[in-house]
Amino acid sequence: MVNYNCIIIDDDHYAIEGLKRYIALIPSLILTDAYTDPVKALMELSEAGRIDLILMDIDMPHMTGIELSKTLRAKTRKLIFTTAHTQYGYEAFEVEADAYLLKPYTFSKFAATVTRLFASGADTPNELRPNDDYFFVKNKEENHKLVKIHFKDVVTVESKQNYVMIHAVNKQVLTYMSLTEIGGILEQFPDFVKYHRSFIINRRHIESVTGNMLKMSNGLQIMVGENFRKNFLTFLDAKLLKASRK
Q1: 206 and 214 in contact (C-beta within 8 Å)?
Q2: Mind listing the pLDDT tens digit for each residue in 19-49?
Q3: Cis amide bond preceding 104, omega within 30
Q4: CATH architecture of the region 4-119
Q5: Where in the chain is the domain with CATH 2.40.50.1020?
Q6: Which residue of 69, 112, 176, 196 is most buried, as measured by CB atoms within 10 A?
């Protein structure tokens, strides 16, 4: 069984205790921490490793869940907002939340949401390893013929609603899979990252950078999204060759 670590961020102690009880009933979920202070969560989780699931309230003091998620979204595979307010649906969509649970919600609703997010291809990442050099996918535009693609040749993966377009060096393949699903597979390969909500890119294929615009080796240009700029600038600073100061 695959286990998933999860974090709770909610200023309501009763809401946290309720979530803890729900999480305890799902064997695959492992609660690693719970925060009532969003600022503390920001400081600690910004330096933490990859998180599988964050369960986050929206209406919190000092910093809303929407504001907090702009920094933490890139740190977690799945993000579920848990809130008593209905008016944040558009903002949740903008920060790419995976689900929106309206308080009070039942255990069955919670369990169904978690199952939906992790059941589809949940074990797939374990079937590919960082030393694997290729994979096969079904190409919708060739009657679902199986097409071989080398990881090193993948330039970008673009979301196309229920499909993704895999832009490789010498081909494009449209396959039935969500960007979240293929992201769960590619996340174990460190060069594949999200710098835009609709794209996963292979950093090895970045040819040039103009401001926040990336030009890829296949000529595709991608604007770095606002929520991803901090991580991108960290990467760029580490790779930038600088003259030594005397």
Answers
A1: yes
A2: 999 999 998 899 999 999 999 999 999 877 7
A3: yes
A4: 3-Layer(aba) Sandwich (3.40)
A5: 125-239
A6: 69
